TrEMBL record:
Native source organism of the sequence: Candidatus Nomurabacteria bacterium CG10_big_fil_rev_8_21_14_0_10_35_16
Official protein name in the record: POTRA domain-containing protein
Alphabetized UniProt keyword annotations: Membrane, Transmembrane, Transmembrane helix
Sequence intervals crossing the membrane: 27-47
Length: 291
């Protein structure tokens, strides 16, 4: 008896054709729906009432408004997928704008957006305040007429954010020490001694409370810290020496006790200008030397 080829039966072939036709119809329907949705999205996204036409920038004091405005305009100009405007208030690339602004201007600290009015992109800024200055990886040679090197503003946490103008005297407390920079590399956007910066500032403030006059600090590669004091002896100013892992409370207490005890108490009062150093690196012992 001859076997029947079921796979090639007319009925099965017709069923396969019907399934293919149904599948193609579904694909076509979905495509049409997607196309209608996409065209509708393009139409809605281009409605003038839903697009930004005014940029308002507030909060900046140093960074130029026009420069900020230019970066914002560059980011909202153009289209997504060639059709959908970036200026639509729901589609404004806020993260891109924020990243571009903070990369260009390290002084900018906080950036927030308000699009309650679809036609207005309101940008509120806050800027870092220059508390101290970082002036290089090494101290200048006090015995020479040193060339003025550029200094940079830092905030209260040691973040370096902008070039500082030249200041004569001790207008700002200065920090010196390595950042691990390659030659020609900018320090902007880096932290100076992030792990101990706030501790150094706290100790500096304690020295002021002790009627000493700190004006700069050097963080050395070997781990030592030298805090320099204002003095009439410009070629060899007095310094306080610490370890980088110094205990703030213990070092402060030891120094306070030494300053209140003879002979240092009288020597500081009578021959301060000849003070060379006070060494706080050796536990509870305080060593000092005068010329």
């Amino acid at each position: 008896m001859k076997k029947r080829n079921v796979l090639n039966s007319p009925r099965l072939s017709a069923l396969k054709k019907k399934r293919r036709r149904d599948l193609l119809n579904k694909v076509l329907i979905y495509f049409v729906i997607f196309l209608i949705f996409f065209v509708g999205l393009i139409f809605i996204s281009r409605i003038d009432k839903l697009n930004v036409n005014t940029i308002i920038i507030t909060g900046n004091k140093v960074v130029d408004t026009e420069a900020i405005n230019k970066i914002v305009e560059e980011n909202i100009f153009g289209y997504y997928l060639y059709f959908i405007p970036k200026s639509n208030f729901l589609l404004v690339p806020k993260n891109k704008i924020k990243n571009d602004l903070t990369n260009q201007y390290k002084r900018l600290q906080n950036i927030s957006f308000n699009t309650e009015n679809p036609n207005v992109l309101a940008i509120s800024l806050s800027e870092r305040e220059g508390k101290y200055i970082w002036c290089g990886e090494s101290m200048p040679d006090f015995s020479l007429e040193a060339e003025e090197k550029p200094c940079y503003f830092t905030d209260q946490e040691g973040y370096i954010f902008d070039l500082a103008p030249y200041f004569s005297g001790d207008v700002y407390f200065k920090f010196f020490g390595p950042l691990g920079l390659n030659e020609g590399e900018s320090p902007l956007g880096l932290y100076f001694s992030k792990d101990i910066f706030t501790k150094l500032v706290s100790f500096k403030n304690i020295l002021v409370d002790f009627d000493l006059k700190p004006n700069s600090v050097l963080v050395k590669n070997n781990g030592d810290i030298e805090i320099y004091l204002s003095s009439s002896n410009k070629t060899n100013p007095p310094r306080i020496v610490l370890k980088s892992d110094f205990d703030l409370d213990k070092s402060s207490e030891n120094l306070q006790a030494a300053l209140a005890t003879e002979p240092l108490k009288s020597d500081i009062k009578n021959k301060y200008s000849s003070l060379l150093y006070i060494d706080l690196r050796l536990g509870n012992k305080v060593y000092f030397k005068f010329q």
